[in-house]
Each structure stands twice: as C-alpha cells, then as structure tokens.
Amino acid sequence: MAIMVFAEPPASAAWEHRDARTGFEVLRTARRDGGWTLRGTTTAVENGTPWVVEYAIEVDGDWHTRSARVRHPLGGRPLALDKAPDGRWLVDDRHDPRLDGCVDVDLESSAMTNALPVHRLRLDVDETADAPAVYVRAADLTVDRLEQSYARLPDTTGRQCYGYAAPAFDFTARLVYDESGFVLDYPGLAVRRA
Q1: How far, in Å, CA of 29 to CA of 57, rounded?
Q2: Burial state string for 98-133 with b = 16 or more CB within 10 A and e = fewer than 16
Q3: Per the domain annotation, does 6 fall within a domain?
Q4: How far apart are alpha carbons 129 and 118 in whole angstroms?
Q5: Which residues span the domain enclosing 52?
Q6: Are 114 and 175 in contact (CB under 8 A)?
Q7: pTM score above 0.90
Q8: Does residue 159 form part of some domain?
Q9: pLDDT score recorded for residue 2
Q10: pLDDT in tens, 68-114
Q11: What are phi and psi of 8, to 5 degrees?
C-alpha cells in the first residue's frame, strides 16, 4: 500500500462554524524546528453563550503534537499542554495519567485539530486507526481524554474522506479533507471558507 503524503499546509485557513454553534475560526501556519506551528483563534456562540479561544499547537515533522497553548483572551487562566519525551502529558507542568497514550490534541473549539491525526496516521483506503486525544473544552478549557477513531474511506471527487467516530459523544461523521490534510467539511460543525 502507498503511504499517504499531504501537500504543505497553506499559510492560512478559515472555517465557518455552523449548526452546533455559530462562529468562525482563523488559522496561520508556520514552519518551526522541523515541524509546524499552528496558531489560531475561534469565536463562537453556542447554546446562547459566546466564547473566544486562542491556540498555538506545535507539531513535529510527522505531525506528532509536541505542545499546545490554549487561552481565553478575554480572561481566565491559560492552559499549557506539553508532551514529555517519555510520552506522558503534562497539564500546566503536572503529569495527568488519564492522558497517557494520547498522541494528538483535540480542541472542542477547532475544526483544524482534526488534521493532526490524519496527517500523523497517513491511512490508506480501508485502513482504520484509534486516535485517542487530549480533549480541551471550549467554555472552560477543562482537559479530558477523548477516545476517537479515523477510517480512510474512498476519495470523493478527488478529495480524501475519513469516517470519524467519538463514542463518548455517540458521534460519527464523514469528514472531507483537502490535499493539505485540512478538513473541508465537518457535518454539523464547520465548513472551510478559505
């Protein structure tokens, strides 16, 4: 089987969040230390509550998450997530054993973070992989473990497609990605606009 290789990510991208919430996400990417810095902001209204989340995620050349900084720019304590060399996750410099075995960060506020496991896993059609993630909630930046999986589906009109499942939320979706491995269509959540 051929190993899936993505094109270099664009310098910027944007998603319109809709259905589950109304809002927008803007991302800037930059090469750094053999990997990438993914810096973005999401603003939304969900269930009548507005929020703003800023993030900076560092990934290595194979898209393994090194660290993430997440904050509410209008107040509150920022969150620091760091992956130690031995694979343990540090949350604000303290080991959280619930997160052992997680490779990616999944921000509830972000459609972009669904690119992390897709890049890292490089699945061929009909391959499936578990991708447990460090999950950060938008409203209060609480951290938990999220069990999830990705299954590579046949391409549609030249676009890569993945079956996504998060059993804790009883949620499944068919995600469509561009050639750089960023989600174009996340049903019920977001659509790429730029």
Answers
A1: 10
A2: ebeebbbbbbbbbbbbbbbbbbbbbbeeeeeeebbb
A3: no
A4: 10
A5: 12-192
A6: yes
A7: yes
A8: yes
A9: 47
A10: 999 999 888 899 999 998 999 999 999 999 999 999 999 999 999 99
A11: -60, 140
**pLDDT computed for residue 3 by the predictor:** 56
- Return d(Cα 131, Cα 157) in angstroms, integer: 26
Q: How far apart are CA 39 and CA 11, in angstroms?
A: 11
- Which residues in the chain come in under a pLDDT of 50? 1-2
Show the DSSP H helices in the chain as ranges.
115-121
Structure tokens at 173: 């979706």
Based on the structure, what is the number of domains in the chain? 1
Residues in the chain: 194
DSSP designation for 181: S
H/E stretch holding 14 reads: strand 12-17
φ, ψ for residue 41, nearest 5 deg: -140, 135
Q: Is 96 helix (H, G, I), strand (E, B) or coil?
A: coil
The answer to whether 53 touches 138, Cβ cutoff 8 Å, is: yes
Q: Are 104 and 179 in contact (CB under 8 A)?
A: no
- What is the widest separation between alpha-carbon atoms in the chain? 49
- Answer yes or no: is 3 within a domain: no
